[in-house]
């Protein structure tokens, strides 16, 4: 660390409380701009403690990049966990960090104005360190936030797929798979995979695929039914369909579907028939 960086580090540490107080006043004068309670005056002490850790991280950049990055991981562990725990939106995190950045920029400028011996190079170097420090913080925090969002979306997608393929047990042997909406090729593939897995898991021996909620019967749905019935047969599961309406029967005829399995007009007919066979 050169002499100029050392002097700047000492100055910023000596003025950290002033920097944070100025930052907090900017936060609270626009309190309504934030949706998270974290930025409420009620939690001023917690917010001050967080900003002190952030300030210490930025100032460590003047000691050297290694010192900064060693502290960055610890900062992320604490700050990211607290912000996510309190569901603070990413834009609010970035906005408040940028407000703190501006207070540091002002402090660096004040130091250079107060010290005539500071060269233009030292001034721009100090500014670059502050900006690089905040940029690295924003990048690291945003990357973690993005990865969590992607992970959450993947989990939600899996949950939606699970919910959209409800294999409902009716008896110890019989289950129903009610299909809803339109089945495209991507959904058809997932339906077949999840349905087969659930039939094995629940020990299903007979599966009724109910088409009452299907809006349109096309090639994708026809292929899915063919594939699903074939897979179920290999698993020892007897499949049949229900909910065939006149319009759908015409659509099935155009698709030229030949499932060679038993079909019922309605679920009621399925239950009546299965009750007689028990």
Automatic annotation (TrEMBL):
STAS domain sequence ranges: 164-274
Q: What is this protein called?
A: STAS domain-containing protein
To which species is this protein native?
A: Listeria welshimeri serovar 6b (strain ATCC 35897 / DSM 20650 / CCUG 15529 / CIP 8149 / NCTC 11857 / SLCC 5334 / V8)
Q: Which PROSITE patterns match?
A: PH_DOMAIN, STAS
**Lineage of this protein's species?**
Bacteria, Bacillati, Bacillota, Bacilli, Bacillales
Q: Membrane-spanning residues where?
A: none
Q: Which residues form the PH domain?
A: 1-32
Q: Which SUPFAM superfamilies match?
A: SpoIIaa-like
Stored InterPro entries: Bact_StressResp_Reg, PH_domain, STAS_dom, STAS_dom_sf
């Amino acid at each position: 660390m050169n002499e100029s960086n050392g002097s700047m580090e000492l100055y910023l540490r000596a003025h950290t409380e002033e920097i944070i107080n100025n930052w907090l006043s900017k936060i609270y004068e626009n309190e309504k701009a934030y949706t998270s309670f974290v930025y409420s005056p009620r939690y001023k002490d917690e917010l001050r403690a967080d900003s002190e850790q952030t300030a210490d991280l930025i100032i460590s950049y003047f000691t050297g990049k290694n010192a900064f990055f060693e502290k960055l991981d610890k900062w992320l562990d604490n700050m990211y966990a607290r912000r996510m725990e309190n569901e603070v939106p990413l834009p609010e995190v970035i906005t408040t960090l940028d407000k703190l950045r501006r207070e540091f920029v002002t402090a660096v400028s004040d130091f250079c104005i107060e010290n005539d011996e500071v060269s233009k190079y030292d001034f721009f170097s100090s500014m670059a360190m502050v900006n690089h420090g905040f940029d690295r913080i924003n990048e690291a925090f945003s990357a973690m936030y993005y990865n969590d969002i992607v992970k959450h979306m993947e989990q939600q997608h899996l949950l939606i797929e699970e919910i959209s393929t409800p294999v409902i047990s009716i008896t110890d042997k019989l289950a129903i798979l009610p299909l809803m909406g339109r089945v495209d090729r991507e959904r058809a593939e997932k339906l077949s995979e999840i349905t087969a897995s659930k039939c094995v898991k629940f020990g299903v021996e007979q599966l009724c695929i109910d088409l009452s909620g299907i809006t349109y019967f096309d090639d994708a749905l026809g292929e899915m039914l063919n594939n699903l019935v074939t897979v179920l047969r290999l698993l020892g599961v007897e499949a049949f369909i229900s909910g065939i309406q006149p319009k759908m029967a015409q659509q099935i005829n155009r698709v030229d579907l030949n499932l060679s399995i038993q079909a019922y007009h309605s679920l009621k007919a399925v239950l009546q028939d299965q009750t007689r066979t028990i």
